[in-house]
Each structure stands twice: as structure tokens, then as C-alpha cells.
Amino acid sequence: MAELRTEEEQIEAIKNWWKENGRSLLLAIAVAVAAVFGWQGWQKRQDAQATNASITYQELVDSALALRSAPDAGAQRATAEHLSETLKNDYSSSGYAVLGALLMAKVNVDASDLDKALSELVWAEENAQEPEMKQLAQLRIARIKLAQGDAAAARDLLKSANATYFTAAYEELLGDAFVALGDVAQARKAYDSALSVATPQAKAVLQMKRDDLAQGDES
Amino acid sequence: MLQTIRENSQGIIAKGIVGLIVLTFALWGVESLVSLTNKEPAPAEVNGEDITKQELFQGMELQRRQLLAQMGENADPSAIDENMLRQMVIESLISRKVLLQSAKDMGFHLSDQMVDQIIVSTPQFQVDGKFDRDQYEAVLRSAGFTPLMYRDLIRKEKLIQQAQAGYVLSEFATTEELKRLIALDRQTRDLAYVTLKADPEAVNVTEDEIQAEYDAQAASMVTQEQVAVDYVLLDRAALAKPEQVTEADIKAAYDQMVAGFKSEEERSARHILIDINSDRDADAALRRARELRDEIESGADFAEVAKRESADLGSAQEGGELGFNGRGVFVEPFEDALFALKKGEVSEPVRTEFGYHLIKLEDVKETEVPTLAEAEADLREQVAQANAEQDYVAALERLSDLAFSSNDLQAASEELGLKIRSTDFFSRAGGSDLVSTSQKAIDAAFSDQVLNERLNSDPIELDSGRTLVLHVRDHKEPHQLALDEVRDRLEAQLRGEKAAKALNEKADSWLAALREGRSLADIDATASWEIVTGVERGAQALPSAVVRTAFSMPRPAEGVARYDSVAMNGARAIVALNAVTDGSDELSEDEQKSLSTVIANQRGQQIYQMHSDALRKSAEVEIN
Fold first, then answer.
1. What is the pTM of this model?
2. Contacts of A109 in chain B (CB under 8 A)
3. Which CATH architecture has domain A151-218?
């Protein structure tokens, strides 16, 4: 047992152990230190990335706000365009990029460029991570299609989306599409199911649309 | 013994135990031991993340302050239901938490520098347009935050805001959608209506029916327990003797007043209130306020507009006139806006709890120190009141003794010179006199001591200057009401029911006849249509039930009216829809721009609401 040895024997034992294991021990420590620093560095880079994306996004929001009160400002729109491109190119995996594309779709609708708006929404739909975000993009794609006069495409898109989020908005838009297609009975059905799930704030407009399609009870 | 410990500690088992302890600490740290002793659960858990006690406490504190501020001067902290407050705050903390989690899941991030930037540019923390650390810390302290807590709060709020901006701001309205909405909104309808009224006098109610109704309701027809009391009232105001105040006292009070006098500014203003109600949400009210402001800016007379539009009926008649007022009279946002105005200027819309206000500053005056002669009457009263305070406190103490030591109010009345007064009978629900409108007095009157033992009550403080002691004079037990006592009421009730039924039958038969093609004159020669053409959705001149019904009816075929009926407060209207005229979908560029902003914003709010509802619904929440 160890406690029976003399001091010299103990030192000798340690020396031997060091000769055998010293190199691998040092290596292990070096690897550990490198791993910690590497992890920290990576973390820092991630943070810096996220911070840059956040700042860019915030600027885009401010720009969109400015455009809302003055939608014709060409220079402002170019700025927004540039910011959104930066988000898409450099931070495409972040939620900021998708929301940025949605914002740009709005900017383009306000500038009456429906084609450009559509392509922004399609990008958002393809790059969104969460199903909710995808469905929001799809909903807005259908609205653009309807605005472009392609009610049938809007209807098919809405039906095939099998939306689990924003169902009231989906049903309302489906009603709008049926109205455009002249199918009053289907439109009525869609508005009714929208009314059954809509928030109180959304109901006023919905009720107005539904009432306009009222059917005579005695006819 | 030490030797044995030393030897044992080197054994294999001892080393094993020490090794285990080392491992535990290495892997789980000190918390593993601390948490064993501190097992109290967090108030709520949201998707595996705790809402801490501290968060809940802070939230409740903040909410409490807001509630008290809303209650105004007579705020009573005990009126706040703690349980309800707690539930409300937990629910809102959960909503914030899921929104925050969702923002983080989307990869949202805010660096320390960004938080700094936000804090530095907050106007409340600035002095002369520059960030001021002392100001910052003072504001935080008065709001009950430490800098660390505040930073954390800002970070969370901003992350949530970023996501919110994405959802709300990205919503749009296409030209086609706007055109459809505006055409629907501008649609007008030609209609006619006739109102049938219920006539309770025209129906028969027999004695048998009244008896049957009495039998059916007998159980609920019981009077409440009532008492009538005698009381003596000690009133500080009555103790004041202004005529006994000396000239010297008045002079002293005047000197004191002059020393403490600060000239105070008073401002005379007019205002227009655009209220927020079920027909008009905050956005619509704000829009209306802006329109009115533009109208005034372009030359309309403020007073005329106030008369026409203001929802503050008290001042509307006077052209919105509010007279001269100092600070502390109006609610804070209103006051701030009023005191920031220049003479003759009209404010931007100001939001208060009542709605949006437009304020016009008419005149400003500084009040000056009144002369001794002017102030004398007031000062005499003040000094007398202050002197009365001492007498009041002394009398109060005596009243308390006398009430306790005697069986009736006689002694207190004689010694303190207080008249014994009496009340009528009142129940626990209270009545209309001084005693029965005070909950404290009612409770005392029905207490065991006063009601059953017939002792005097303890002194009851009605307010800071009035105290009374009461004694029960008479008591009525609850009793069953006889048929005679309630006959009239039951008859009126039965008449009402029968008349309503008759009315419905009549309306239904008229409706059926009209739908068969008969004319109204043919059905009843005395009835005639009220005919209105071009009715808009928001028409004010007609009963709103009639308008609503007309707009929910199907479009009539050419020349063939549609008929429907609607209940209206003891009456029924039969509505004939003659024609529908679709509204024009023409929009000027300006109209389109402002409408699209409003509609897009509304839709954005709705979409965001759906987003946060969905998050809340799918979250795993545990409330402890």
C-alpha cells in the first residue's frame, strides 16, 4: 500500500507516472482549453451575428414606418430594399429575415407593385421555420393573387393550405375568393365559419360582408 | 480516538464516500443542496420556464398602483380584490412570457449596447435633451425598479415589440379590398317601417291567474329584516364658532398665508371630447379628432364645433367652455396638454380615459395675493375650523365613554348637547338617510351587540369630521308578504307578459300577411309606413334596431319588398326593405392612402391577436 513507501519511493513513482502519462495529460488540457475558447468565440460570433441582424431589422422597421406615412418616398424605399436584402443574404436563417420579407411585401403593395410583393411573400414562405409564419405568408400570397384577379388560384391555395393558424382570416379570404368567383353559396358558408371563430374586433367587417349575401327565408 | 478516525478515513469505504460527495458538487454544485431545503414552487410555469415570485410581486405592485391612480382621490386600497389582482397579473405575465419565448425561438436578440442605446434615448431620463444618470436613477427608484431589473424589462419588452412590429406593420390592404369595403360601407337602402306597441291595458288578467302566480312565487316574496335607529351625531363643523375668532388670530393666519403664497396660474380653455364607445374604437376616435382639428385649423369656430360634436354634454352646450382652472383639476394628460398650449392655440388630440380631446387655450391669468379685507371671511372660517378640531377630539373621547357606560343615548345627548335623531326603517341593503347610506353604520346597526343586546354602538366615524353613536329603536323580522300586498305588482307583471305575447302574435300575423302580398292599409286601416330612402349604415335618425335589421335583410327583387321584424324595447318594428343601392367604390388618392393605413393597421392588430392567442393556447402552463 502507498502509505508504506518511503518518501523517495513516492517521488520515484510520481516521476514514472508523469513519464507515462504526462504527454497525454497536457494534450487533454490543451484540447479542453481550446474547446472552451472555441465555444466562447463561436458564441460571441453568434451573438454578434444576431445583434447585427437585430439592428438591421430595427432599421427596416423604422424605414417601413416612415414609408407608411409617405409611401412615395423613392429613396426611403431603396433603403428598405437594401436592408431587407442584407437580412436575406447574411442572416437568412434568422426570423428577422422572414419578417423583413413580410415588411417588404407590404411596402411593395403600398407602392402598387403586386408582383414584387408576391415574390417577397414567396421567399418568406419558403424560408420560414415555424408553420405559423409559413401560413401567414401563404395567407398573404392568396390575398395578392386575389388582388391580381386570379380568384381561382387564391381559392385553391387557401384550400390546400390546411391552415391551423389564423383560421378566421383564412375563412374570410376564402369567402372573398368565392364572391369574386360568383359562388355565393360557398362564400356564405366560408363567412359563417369565419364568424364562428373570429375575434370580436374582426366581426364587424365580416358581418357586413356576410349580410350583403343574405338569403331570403321565404324564397 | 483521533487515531481511529485517521485510520478509518483512509479506508476504501471512506474514500468512496468522499468521492461521491466530490462528484455531487462537481456535477450539480451547491444548488443541489440548497434546493433540497427550498422546495416552494414558482407561482407559474410556462413551457418549462418559471414565472418567478418576484415578477409576480412586481407586476401586482405595478397593477395596484395603476388601479389606485384610476380610482382617484378616494382610492381605497382595501377595495382591490387581491385574488383577482393576482390572477389578472399572472395571466398577463403568461401572455408576455409566451410572446417572449416565441421571439427568442425566432432568433431575436438584443445586445447590451442596444439596451443602453434605448435607455440613453428615453426622454424621461433626459435633462435638457441629454441623458442624465441622476435623473435616470431617480425615475427608476420612484417606479420601484433597480437598474438591473429595468434593463431586463427593457430587453424583454423590446424583443416582444420587434416581433409585434413584424406582424402588425407588415399587414397591408390591397386596392381591390379597399374598394369592396368602401362600396359595402357606402351602400344605402330604401326602407319603411311601422312600430307596433305592446298594450298592457288591453289584455285581461283574472284573479285566478294572479293567485296562481302568487303561489308560484310565494317562496321569494319575503320582506327583508329591517331596523330603525336613534342616533346622536357629533359634527366638527357645528362646533366651529367663527364669530369668536379674534382679529389677532386672523392677522396671524393672514401673515402665514402671505408667507406661503405662490402665485398660481389659471387657464381658461374650451375642449371637445370625442369619446370611445361601442360604435367607435380608439383609432376611429383619433381619426375623427384629427378631422375636427383640421376643420378648426381651416377656420371653423371652435365653440361651434364643440356644440356640434363634443361628447362632454356638460360643456358642449357652452361651446366647450371650461372656465378658469389651476393645476390639479383635470386628469394628467389633459392638464399637461393644457399647460403646454399658447394662448389661442388648439392642441393635437389628447388621449385620456374618456377618449380624445381637442383643447383650445383661451386665456391665462396669474392669481395675486388677496388683501386682508378680501381674505378675512375665509380666514375666520379656517381659524374657527382649526379651533373646532381640538373641541371635536375632546368631545369624541367623552362620547365614547358615555356611549359605553350607559344603555341609551340620553346621557350623551344631555352632556354634549347633541340632539337625538331618528331614522326610518332600513334593511341591510341600506336606505337614503345619513345612517343607512354608511356601510359602517349599517353593519353596526345589525351587529349582535346593537341589535340583540340593545346596547349603544361604538362611535362610528362617517368621515374625518363626523361621528355618530346609534341605538336600535325598533326591529322588524322578515315576514311573508300577503297576496294583497303584492297584488298590484303581480298584476302588472302578468299584464306585461300577456301584452308582449299578444304583440308578438300580432306582429307575426302582420308579417305573414305582408309577405303574402297584402298591403298594410288592407291589414289595418289606421297603420301607416314610416318611409325613408337612402338610409346609410350609420344612420342616427332612425332606431338603430331598424337600421341593423334592414341591412341584414336579403336584397329584394325589383319591385317586391322584403319584410322582417325586430324587437325594440316593449315594441316591435316591422321593416320593409324596398331597394338596395350599391355604394360607389371611387376613392380619391388621399382617401385611399388614409383608409389603407387604417384598415391595414386594424388587420395587423387582429393578426397579432390571433398570433398571441395561438401561442397562449398551445403553451404548457402550470399555475400553482
1. 0.63
2. 172-174
3. Alpha Horseshoe (1.25)
